[in-house]
Amino acid sequence: MKATLRLLLLGLAALLPPSLPAAEAKRPNIVFILSDDHASQAIGCYGGKLMKTPNLDRIASAGMRFDRCFCTESICAPSRATILTGKYGHITGAMGWKPYNRKHRTFPEYLSDAGYQTALVGKYHLGNNPPGFDYFDIFPGQGRHRDPQLVSKEGTKLHRGHSSDVITDLALAWLERRDRGRPFLLCLHDKSTHMPWQPAERFAKLFENKTLPEPPTLFDDYRGRADWLKLSICRVDGINRWQEKLWGAPPAGLSREQECRWLYQTYMKHYLRCAAGLDENVGRVLDWLDRNQLAQDTVVVYSSDQGFFLGEHGWFDKRWMQEESLRMPLIVRYPRLVKPSSVASVLVLNTDFAPTLLDLAGVPAPADMQGRSLRPILAGDATRDWRKAIYYRYYTEEYGIPPQLGVRTERHKLIHYKGRVGIGFPPKGAINPARWQDVDEWELFDLKADPNEQTNLYNKPEAQSIVSQLKTELDRLRKELKDQN
Ligand code: CA
User: Fold this and answer.
1) pLDDT digit string, tens, across residues 35-92
2) Domain ranges across the chain
3) Which of 27, 136, 396, 475 could form a disulfide with 120 if both were Cys (CB 3.0 to 4.6 A apart)?
4) Which residues surround ligand 1, an ion (CB under 5 A)?
5) Distances in Å between the alpha carbon of 417 and those of 4, 17, 19, 247, 420?
6) Is residue 108 pLDDT above 70, yes or no?
7) What is the mean predicted confidence (pLDDT) over 265-275?
8) What is the topology classification, in CATH, of domain 26-383?
9) For residue 74, how far is its CA from the centre of ligand 1 (angstroms)?
10) How many whole angstroms separate alpha carbon 280 and alpha carbon 167?
11) Quick check: 338 and 378 in contact, CB under 8 A?
């Protein structure tokens, strides 16, 4: 009898429109956690073998993991401008290191107008006085990990401790003193796992006696691919140019290969120690939501402003259109809409974040936002009319990494390296080197057959039909997205 009644009630519940029950009609709170340079390869729920991330995995096991979320330009500030505005950098002005034009309004500004109380704590990296926030405490520029300074409406203050702990303390303090009568948006933007990789003291010995697995392409020879891949200076075997002060020189007497392996292990241990602090602090926020009975009515989003190379292709850093740099982690928990442990494989962009969060808050997304709301995907609805390709554009010319544009479909990726690029290491004190060269090269990859992007099919006769289709798609997207650069 009991079982029959339960079945009947479940059947009735399924018939009700999702917007009817009072609890569902409430506007959700939003906790938007954005880290810096945190690669999916280092996250447990993405199948990462490097470390455990129990708290990020908590979000995924209660929500949805997006396996194909990409950035429009793989570098900090442009991705952040895109996340906030829902627009590409060529629209807002945030191309490479250029600032975005604040006439392009952000999702926190729209949420604030709609009655949300709004806070931003941590990295902003788009100037001062972030618009749309009732409260902010932001790092000046990149900020620092140890004893960071933070800038609020009251001025600049030094805070003792590690950046991840400090910003989480400030965020939780704001949540405690918030107005309980209105929904909130908390943007918690960690500096981890950005270089220099200085973890909190309690993680200083993590992985100390462990040998971490190497990616299969650590010693990539770039054979058959664009010549420019060899000219990047953001290489694991050259990483001590930036990090030697932090962890010291490799032991003497090592072969070049042994030295690269030593640098990889050292780099990874420092990076992952920062990720451990990030994960632990995510757990503190989730615990706070649980303790305050807010987990059901709060959308929790975890992402990073781009991906990062953890030794793949012999590289660290980002910028390139190769998968490890292009792909962003994106995990969303919202029990009122999203089924636990669900996975989405549709092509998602950082332009989608702003329209999604507005949609979930019941605020119509402005028509000039270039992304699309992920609500139907989060709700598990059919997505037949979803985008079939994404458009990527990287503008900067530094570190021997060329400007590039390209298109990625579910199966293929076409990259055009085009423009001017600086060669070799910059002179002391300069960002760009003294010598420049023009570049014009193409690559095509079949991501299904070649997920590590080792075989350039661009000049293969059998690939010419797909090359032609993708060039047409690249032109179409460029026009549709109004990129006139
Ligand atoms: Ca970044």
Assistant:
1) 999 999 999 999 999 999 999 999 999 999 999 999 999 999 999 999 999 999 999 9
2) 26-383
3) 136
4) 36-37, 76, 305
5) 64, 50, 48, 34, 9
6) yes
7) 98
8) Alkaline Phosphatase, subunit A (3.40.720)
9) 8
10) 13
11) yes
